[in-house]
């Protein structure tokens, strides 16, 4: 049995995108307000109405063009660029050059958390003081 797909088999493209997103047919069916059998039929269809295709694209979180232009080779080429050693990969990060020291940022967040805690503690003390004043007034 061959797994080679026809170039414009939209249903199979939807199926592969759904699988790559680790989504079951039931989940896609629920997002579209239908049942799993309808998704199975749709994925076996070579063509799909444009309006339905837009709904499916939205449910999958991709564009209609992404579905229409999907190819297995493109997916493999995309992921293979992550291993390029000449820094021309998918995101072209090159080497890591931080413009800040990560520990400095961590300590800043610790200081911010400490200040927030102190403000929260002071607010609680003020609340207790106010409640005690109310009790003494009675």
Keywords for this entry:
Transcriptional regulator, XRE family; 434 Repressor (Amino-terminal Domain); 7 helices; DNA binding; 138 residues; mainly alpha; 0% strand; Lambda_DNA-bd_dom_sf
Description:
- The chain has 138 residues and is mainly α.
- The chain folds into two domains: 10-83, lambda repressor-like DNA-binding domains (434 Repressor (Amino-terminal Domain), Orthogonal Bundle); 101-138.
- 64% of the residues lie in helices and 0% in strands.
- It has seven helices and no strands.
- It has helices spanning 10-20, 25-32, 36-43, 50-60, 64-68, 72-80, 102-137.
- α2 (25-32) packs across α3 (36-43).
- The longest helix has 36 residues, at 102-137.
- The relative contact order is 0.08.
Radius of gyration: 27 Å
CATH topology of the largest domain: 434 Repressor (Amino-terminal Domain)
How many beta-strand runs? Answer: 0
The CATH architecture category of the largest domain equals Orthogonal Bundle
CATH superfamily of the largest domain: lambda repressor-like DNA-binding domains
Mean pLDDT: 82
Number of domains: 2
Uncertain runs are: 87-93
- What is the element string, with H for helices and E for strands? HHHHHHH
**Largest sheet, strands/sense/barrel:** none
Q: Which CATH class of the largest domain applies here?
A: Mainly Alpha
Terminal CA distance reads 86 Å
Helix content: 55-70%
Question: Proportion of β residues?
Answer: under 5%
The shape is elongated
Number of helices: 7
Structural class: mainly alpha
């Amino acid at each position: 049995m061959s797994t080679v797909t026809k170039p414009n088999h939209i249903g199979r493209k939807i199926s592969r995108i759904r699988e790559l997103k680790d989504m079951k047919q039931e989940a896609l069916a629920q997002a579209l307000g239908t049942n799993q059998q309808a998704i199975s039929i749709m994925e076996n269809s070579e063509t799909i109405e444009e309006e339905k295709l837009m709904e499916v694209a939205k449910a999958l979180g991709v564009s209609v063009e992404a579905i229409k232009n999907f190819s297995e080779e493109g997916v493999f080429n995309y992921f293979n660029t992550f291993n390029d050693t000449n820094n021309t990969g998918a995101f072209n990060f090159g080497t890591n050059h931080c413009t800040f020291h990560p520990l400095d940022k961590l300590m800043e967040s610790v200081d911010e958390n400490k200040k927030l805690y102190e403000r929260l503690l002071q607010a609680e003390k003020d609340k207790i003081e106010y409640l005690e004043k109310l009790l003494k007034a009675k």
